[in-house]
Amino acid sequence: MLRPDHYFRSPPATAPAPRSVSVLAVRTLSHLRPGTLPLPRAAPPLRGKTSNTVRASAPAAREADSARMPALAHREVAQDLSAEVEARLGTRLLPSAVPVDVAEFRNGTGSAVGSLDVRRGAPGSSIDFMLQSSLHCKVPTGAIDITSILIFLNASTDAPHFLLELIQGSPTLMVVVLDLFPRKDLALHPEYIEKYYENTQLDKQRESIEELPQTRPYRSPSLFVRSAFSPTAILVTIDCGQGGEDVLEDIVRGRLASVAKGVLQTWLNSCADQALEMEEGERDSMLRRDRIVRLKSIEVDLTANLPRMFDPDVSSRVIAEIRKAFGVE
Amino acid sequence: MLRPDHYFRSPPATAPAPRSVSVLAVRTLSHLRPGTLPLPRAAPPLRGKTSNTVRASAPAAREADSARMPALAHREVAQDLSAEVEARLGTRLLPSAVPVDVAEFRNGTGSAVGSLDVRRGAPGSSIDFMLQSSLHCKVPTGAIDITSILIFLNASTDAPHFLLELIQGSPTLMVVVLDLFPRKDLALHPEYIEKYYENTQLDKQRESIEELPQTRPYRSPSLFVRSAFSPTAILVTIDCGQGGEDVLEDIVRGRLASVAKGVLQTWLNSCADQALEMEEGERDSMLRRDRIVRLKSIEVDLTANLPRMFDPDVSSRVIAEIRKAFGVE
């Protein structure tokens, strides 16, 4: 069965031969993905003004980045979502303050390029941070492209986080991970399921993707990752087979774009503003869970994989910045 | 997509037309299944001596039961598993004390027949109860047959429960639900995942079933049910298509039997004896979770569905007995 992780079963072009070949794309709780969304020059900016200013100070890096990070339909979809978030959340998102050498980075031989943007939530808002990233990495069989948007909420609410990850292993094959990421033990809290997943009819979005004949369920090899998602999570491989480049692009721009937008709307309408009275113990318990999920996902994803693609100093910088965003320095 | 729940989208032959047609087989946390495993007369007993004695007092009922509960390969598989459990747990299982009219029951028109057996764990053991049930119910398109084995542990351990449910919707189609059912919030307890699911390599059993071309993932329509299973749970539909009666039987007697035995062995070796020191708060939290899962599964399954198949007095008796076993009277 062809899956994107196969690309990483062969080591990336520039990585030293690993002792054990770990899997990148399938370790997908998924905050490893360095890289903001690659913009055509004419496209509207994805980040706030500060970000652009920061980036303007590194024109050479941006030039090289444009050259190497390919324009892909899935990145345009992510870009549209990002624009929607910024329009809706507005001043509740602070400008980015990610250092230039983390905002865009590459490995020494140029086989991998990435970018990362983190915007913290404004004081008093329910937003903890919004993280956008993009990664393009050459592998012996071609390249892998990963684009992520994570919007995590803080302790003023128990509402789920938003999580999107698109892992494109070839022009015909992609893994989609899209979820309103739960913050409570669902078996212990049926009312949480009802409030955020049943009443919002999120399962219809999942069904809408899964009814496509090109999709099959995607199962992370990490049991922890599998355990962390909601019961309506979209976890699928879209495999359009040989010659299916146009089919994949149509699905991405059509059904996938529509479903991702639908899930985001649900999150914006039902989660992003849900400040909530909670008992102290309940809040502590939620924060403890949040912290373990964040730590574990960084351990599973980043520390295992990023150093295989980027030089140690680069991966350390990127990991440090993501740790900072996650509040688990 | 043909699924067993379709059989119940039409009301059972004898049930009053329901206002809302609820789904039986897919509401599968699944303790609704009245009925012990139907035994050919020559087969070794499934229950302890007391059970047989109880049953011997109702020869007429047994006669009718034998006539109506068809012998099926999946029931033989369950019977073998049950025999293995009884051999291994031995005196840790008390004899059954289920009343005769719950041990075997039927509806007034004879379109549905079921049986239930519950054996409590002996004092000082880690076993809470072992529940075996079988149900045969005629529906307009044929019949549905459900066989279950649940072995729940008590608060002396946090080890997972054992849960098997086989829902046969036709001679060519079956849903398999097989899990070591977790008792902790897995996202909060990665060490629990490691201990009971990773180190035991349970995922290989799941893969062994899912690699069959006749299987596809089974997804319960209940989001709560989906949330309650472990990440290595086997939740599949085996669909052998028109004319595939022999294929299904071969799979059931071959791969399914082997996998179910493997999972049971893991449970017997790694869970059934795992008495564990726990802090009081930890134990309380686990018991609270256990209780909600039990209550919710009874609500989802039994109270919604059993009265649709059996006369009210019968379903009430059966539900009461299961509530007693579950400790949620």
What are the salient characteristics of this protein?
homodimer; 329 residues; alpha+beta; oxygen-dependent coproporphyrinogen oxidase; 8 strands; 20% strand; globular; disordered N terminus; red chlorophyll catabolite reductase activity (chains A, B); RCC_reductase (chains A, B)
SSE blueprint:
The structure is a homodimer of 329-residue chains.
Chain A: H1 5-9, H2 49-56, H3 59-68, H4 73-89, H5 100-103, E1 104-106, E2 112-120, E3 127-139, E4 142-153, E5 161-170, E6 173-181, H6 190-198, H7 202-210, E7 215-217, H8 223-228, E8 234-239, H9 245-270, H10 280-309, H11 312-326
Antiparallel strand pairs in A: 1-2, 2-3, 3-4, 4-5, 5-6, 6-8, 7-8
Helix pairs in contact in A: 4-9, 7-9, 10-11
Describe, in plain words, how this protein is organized in 3D:
- 2 copies of one chain form a homodimer.
- With 329 residues, chain A is α+β, with helices and mostly antiparallel strands.
- Chain A has a single domain, classed as oxygen-dependent coproporphyrinogen oxidase, CATH 3.40.1500.20.
- Chain A is built from 11 helices and 8 strands.
- Chain A has helices spanning 5-9, 49-56, 59-68, 73-89, 100-103, 190-198, 202-210, 223-228, 245-270, 280-309, 312-326; strands at 104-106, 112-120, 127-139, 142-153, 161-170, 173-181, 215-217, 234-239.
- The first copy, chain A, has an 8-stranded antiparallel β-sheet with strand order 1-2-3-4-5-6-8-7, with helices on both faces.
- In chain A, strand 3 and strand 4 form a beta hairpin.
- In chain A, helix 4 packs parallel to helix 9 (245-270).
- Chain A is globular.
